[in-house]
Amino acid sequence: MGRLNLLMLLVLSFIVVLMANLASAQLRSNYYANTCPNVESIVRNVVNQKFQQTFVTIPAVLRLFFHDCFVEGCDASVIVSSTPGNTAEKDHPDNLSLAGDGFDTVIKAKAAIDSNSRCRNKVSCADILALATRDVIQLSGGPWYPVELGRLDGLTSKASNVEGKLPKPTFNLNQLNAMFASHGLTQADMIALSAAHSVGFSHCSKFSNRIYNFSPQSPIDPTLNKQYAAQLRGMCPRNVDPRIAINMDPKTPRTFDNNYFKNLQQGMGLFTSDQVLYTDRRSKGTVDLWASNTKSFNSAFVTAMTKLGRVGVKTGRNGNIRFDCGRMN
């Protein structure tokens, strides 16, 4: 039975990769060379302006891209607002914590692009989000990389499609690998993408079980650094205001870097799904490598982000270019 399940998972992964390759065949970095040649500089200017207003722009855009791609593919369906007849993805409980600055960045970039008569209604919201994601990564100290373009925007956005599609902070390595494999992503891709937790914030409720009621034998997760656990308890006391959020990286919270992996080595991963990358021997070696080798990590992260950007790409009749990123045409 176990062998049959493994075989089914391998077949599913193969089909996902095949479909992704077919859909992403149209993607290329110079896709808008003839229709909107300045699209990258336009998006970058908007991202820079938003970043100067608030650092939250960085993790907000990065998280928005991930939540978009893992549900129905990278098609900007997470940006669409609900209507009286439809509850959209963004209003699913798993997406309610997505910061408004991420949405605002894409919407403002779309307005800036469409203010150029040559570019008007030529660039998809999905591609804008992909470009903005690359830009916030670089702005916070991460690697620059060419972004493949040519995605269309999705035609549907339903909250019901989100359920079970996003990794939970309590996931173990098997659960993480299975979810990422369903999108054609390897364990190495998963570990690299997890480093997005190098920047950003988390509400206390997402990890409170690790510092108060982990198990009957140990209220604090034994894999958690004791000093770090005490700090977390101080910042997140019982019955804390649910709006309180803390840095996910206690050392360099405003820099995208490989310090995420160094934290794991010290038992300072905030979520169970972070720390398991070091406590599980199957992934520990990768954590150790990237903790000591920035170049190797950056290369792996660029590969993973490029592959993530190919997930569920819409083409032909399966998509369009939205006039307004927040609503369907």
Number of helices: 13
What's the multimeric state? Answer: single chain
Low-confidence stretches: none
- Whole-angstrom Rg: 20 Å
In which range does the helix fraction lie?
A: 40-55%
The H-and-E topology, N to C, reads as: HHHHHEHHEHHEHHHHE
First-last Cα distance: 47 Å
Global outline: globular
Strand ordering within the main sheet: 1-4
Give the rounded overall mean pLDDT. 94
Task: State the secondary-structure class.
Answer: mainly alpha
Strand content: under 5%
- How many beta-strand elements? 4
Largest sheet: 2 strands, antiparallel
Question: How is this structure best summarized?
Answer:
This protein is mostly helical and 329 residues long.
Description of the structure:
The protein is built from 13 helices and four strands. The longest helix is centred in the N-terminal third of the chain and has 23 residues, at 2-24. It has helices spanning 2-24, 39-53, 57-69, 100-114, 125-139, 173-181, 187-194, 208-212, 226-235, 259-265, 272-279, 281-292, 294-308, and strands at residues 153-154, 201-203, 245-247, 319-320. The strands form two sheets. A two-stranded antiparallel sheet has the order 1-4. The mean pLDDT is 94. α3 crosses α5 (125-139) and α4 packs across α5. With 329 residues, it is mainly alpha-helical.
Sequence-ordered SSE layout with sheet pairings:
Layout: H1 2-24, H2 39-53, H3 57-69, H4 100-114, H5 125-139, E1 153-154, H6 173-181, H7 187-194, E2 201-203, H8 208-212, H9 226-235, E3 245-247, H10 259-265, H11 272-279, H12 281-292, H13 294-308, E4 319-320
Antiparallel strand pairs: 1-4, 2-3
Helix pairs in contact: 2-4, 2-5, 3-4, 3-5, 4-5, 7-13, 10-12, 11-12, 12-13
